[in-house]
């Protein structure tokens, strides 16, 4: 498991990116579920995806009340598929931050996208 964790200072959000590697990562991520108070159904779905060796996809957990996003990135069949999945989840994070903070400005969206890219890659 590869874990990246950072804050988005202007908007006050906490971002956790978890890249799943082997099947036994299902056990390693359980403390994350406890730390961020996951709903049991979400936890079960993510663990099942890991155990079933899901690949070329991701899952985003959002908590507007705690201003936290956790993106699970499953293994990829190629570098381009990995980038595609990371960018897909990054876009969800961008959209949700801007919506929650009621920001309707394309320049602010561009700066946020660049900041997240620097942190996620």
Please describe what this structure looks like.
- The protein is an alpha+beta fold and 121 residues long.
- It has one domain (2-120).
- Helix content is 49%, strand content 21%.
- The chain is built from five helices and four strands; from the N terminus they run ββαααββαα.
- It has a four-stranded mixed sheet with strand order 1-2-4-3, with helices on one face.
- Helix 4 (79-100) packs across helix 5.
- The model has no long low-confidence stretch (mean pLDDT 89).
How would you describe this structure in keywords?
121 residues; alpha+beta; four-stranded mixed sheet; 5 helices; 4 strands; 49% helix
Which helices and strands occur, and which strands form pairs?
Blueprint: E1 2-8, E2 13-19, H1 25-28, H2 30-35, H3 40-51, E3 58-63, E4 68-73, H4 79-100, H5 106-120
Parallel strand pairs: 2-4
Antiparallel strand pairs: 1-2, 3-4
